[in-house]
Specification:
The chain is about 30% helix and about 30% strand. The chain is built from nine helices and 20 strands. It has helices at about 5-10, 95-105, 125-135, 195-200, 210-220, 250-260, 280-290, 305-315, 320-325, and strands at about 20, 25-30, 40-45, 50-55, 65, 75, 80-85, 90, 110, 135-140, 145-150, 150-155, 160-165, 170-175, 185-190, 205-210, 230-235, 235-240, 270-275, 295-300. Strands 11, 12, 13, 14, 15, 19 and 20 form a seven-stranded mixed beta sheet that branches. It has a five-stranded mixed beta sheet with strand order 2-3-9-4-5, with helices on one face. Strands 6-7-8 form a three-stranded antiparallel beta sheet, with no helix packed on it. β17 (about 230-235) and β18 form a beta hairpin. α2 packs across α6 and α6 (about 250-260) runs parallel beside α7. The protein starts with a helix and ends with a helix. About 45% of the residues are buried. Bound molecules: zinc ion. Zinc ion binds near residues 94, 95, 206, 253 and 257.
């Protein structure tokens, strides 16, 4: 384990069953991947049981609030966009939500002065650093989790997204298949703990194919996209000079996206997710199928058993190996 991993482990291994928020507010600036505009974002501490709420500081009056919930998803074509009844939206919320889910942040107000979360380097790592910078504090309320009671599956042609019940914890696996040797067939799995998320998943960047990027640009999208914030693939080659952060960085990013999209459940999930060539649309369809079927889940306090298991996994075994055997 490297020094960074050790530090993150110490920072996040406590406070697992109590809700958590930030110790203080913290800000960053960056550009929106699709709008190409500079945006400022500030993360503020929030009350217990308030969840993740976005507030558009550039929109006056009451229509500025957008809860980060599955029922508020209004577009999933290129990224996950949430909106409210006043048609105020925030896009590309998934990487920030993945960071909140990954390190265990329950309640935050995300103040933003534009319509898109900054893309930063295309991964969730800058948001993890931001959360680390603010620090976390436990709150006087137990974390509530959604525990699966039966399998829920959605499909779109060959694409599949499925959630299976498990005894404890949350694991995410994905398999992707692209007609390029730079990606080809990749599969990976992570047994979610804050430590595993930070080490194995948070640094994986978003990716795209040059031809698609050119098409998006021609339609006025991906204006903020560059080799600074995405892996760009042309044919069988990765164009980024620095190369990949992991051999299977693309599928790890798919896992990151799924973690962020699934946090729109409004609280942590207990279960095992698997996606085959899935994306934002199918992830949201899965949440809608799950949460509209009250026989498929129940809400419970996070238990000391979850705490024990999580710590055992953090201390002894690799996340990938653990997720296969449990
Ligand atoms: Zn993504």
């Amino acid at each position: 384990m490297d020094g960074k991993g050790t530090r993150q482990k110490k920072a996040y291994q406590s406070g697992w069953v109590q809700q958590r928020t930030l110790k203080s507010s913290i800000s960053c600036t960056g550009i929106g991947l699709h709008c190409g505009q500079r945006v400022s974002m500030t993360l503020h501490p929030a009350e217990p049981n308030s969840g993740i709420i976005f507030r558009r500081s550039d929109v006056v009056a009451k229509g500025a609030l957008i809860p980060a919930l599955w029922s508020h998803v209004v577009d999933t074509r290129l990224c996950t966009v949430i909106g409210n009844e006043d048609r105020v939206v925030v896009g590309t919320v998934e990487h920030l939500l993945a960071a909140f889910s990954g390190v265990g942040v329950d309640n935050v107000v995300v103040e933003i002065d534009g319509s898109e979360v900054p893309i930063m380097d295309g991964s969730a790592a800058p948001f993890v650093c931001l959360i680390e910078g603010a620090g976390l504090c436990e709150q006087d309320a137990r974390r509530r989790i959604i525990r699966l009671r039966r399998k829920v599956q959605v499909q779109d042609g060959e694409r599949v997204a499925v959630l299976y019940p498990t005894v404890h914890g949350f694991s995410v696996s994905c398999e992707i298949l692209f007609p390029s040797l730079a990606v080809a067939r990749q599969s990976s799995v992570v047994r979610m703990t804050p430590h595993a998320f930070c080490l194995e998943i948070s640094r994986a960047r978003t990716f795209g194919f040059l031809e698609e990027v050119m098409q998006l640009r021609a339609s006025g999208l991906a204006r903020g996209g560059s080799l600074e914030n995405a892996i760009v693939i042309s044919g069988d080659k990765v164009l980024n000079k620095e190369g990949l952060r992991f051999d299977d960085e693309c599928v790890r990013h798919k896992i990151l996206d799924a973690i962020g999209d699934l946090y729109l459940a409004g609280r942590p999930l207990n279960g095992r997710f698997h996606g085959y060539c899935s994306g934002h649309a199918l992830n949201n369809k899965l949440l809608r199928a799950l949460l509209s079927d009250h026989g498929a889940w129940r809400e419970e306090d996070m238990t000391p058993a979850d705490l024990t298991l999580s710590r055992r996994l953090q201390d002894g075994r690799s996340p990938a190996a653990a997720s296969v055997s449990i």
